[in-house]
Each structure stands twice: as C-alpha cells, then as structure tokens.
Inverse folding.
C-alpha cells in the first residue's frame, strides 16, 4: 500500500517538476491525483479532503506560482503538510517500567524489522528489551527475529 502510494505521488511530483511554469490548472490536476492516491491508500476521506485543502491554499499563493522552481515549491509544501499531519516534531517514548510494546500490522509491513530496530534504540537508551515472537504460523518468523536481534545485539529473544 505504501509503495503504491509512494509511486503515485512520485509520478505526480515528477510531472510538476518537469513543468517550466505552473498554472492553477496544473496544481488542481496534481492535487486531484494526490487526493485519489490518498483515498486508494485507505486514508480517511475527511482527512484527505482537509489535507488537500491545506496544500491547495498554500500552493495557490502567488509566491509559488511565480517562484523560480514552482514544482519543487509544491513538493516542499506537500512534505511540510504531511509532516504536520503525521504529528510534526517527534516526541520521545514514555515507557514506565515494566513497559510493553505490541507491534501489529499487515503482512509484509515491516513489523519484525521495526521491532528489532526499536529494541536497539531502547538498548542504546540503557533499557533491557526482550523480543517475543507471537507469529508462530509464518515459516521462519522466529528465525528472522532471532537473526535480527543477533545482528544488532539489540535484545534477548
């Protein structure tokens, strides 16, 4: 899902960057493509509509339409708005002992790798993480997590 969204956004931004001058119509077309890509990636309709509205408001400003590299300006606006939508500045984890983190998600989304990276981060912060494999159906799930934990010596398994 994320790779499909990334590909569609990349194609839209590539078209914008290729334009020497950007018009309101080209911005509207790009925003339509972005809105469709977000909806196809299961972003909630209201969130997508509000997000596109904020990007449109900023992108239609005269400083963008008359800037030297308007395509790159719109990409920056999109990046800034997506960062704000996802929470803006990062906040540290508030883990009170004993802390437990459960990682859930779709198959192939990177939960095992993310868990090993999180364990390494926690170890570097002076904690003693323990990784527990709960996916006993998937072949090699235990081996994959054990290998990742051993590679970065991040945690006990």
């Amino acid at each position: 899902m994320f790779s499909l969204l990334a590909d569609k956004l990349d194609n839209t931004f590539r078209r914008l960057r290729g334009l020497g001058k950007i018009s309101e119509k080209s911005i509207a077309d790009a925003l339509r493509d972005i809105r469709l890509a977000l909806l196809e990636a299961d972003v909630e309709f209201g969130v997508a509509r509000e997000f596109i509205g904020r990007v449109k408001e900023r992108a239609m400003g005269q400083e963008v339409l008359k800037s030297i590299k308007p395509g790159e300006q719109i990409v920056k606006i999109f990046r800034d708005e997506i960062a704000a939508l996802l929470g803006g500045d990062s906040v540290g984890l508030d883990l009170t002992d004993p802390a437990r983190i459960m990682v859930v998600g779709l198959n192939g989304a990177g939960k095992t790798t993310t868990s090993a990276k999180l364990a390494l981060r926690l170890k570097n912060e002076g904690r003693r993480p323990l990784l527990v494999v709960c996916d006993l159906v998937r072949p090699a799930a235990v081996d994959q997590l054990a290998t990742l934990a051993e590679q970065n010596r991040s945690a006990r398994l």
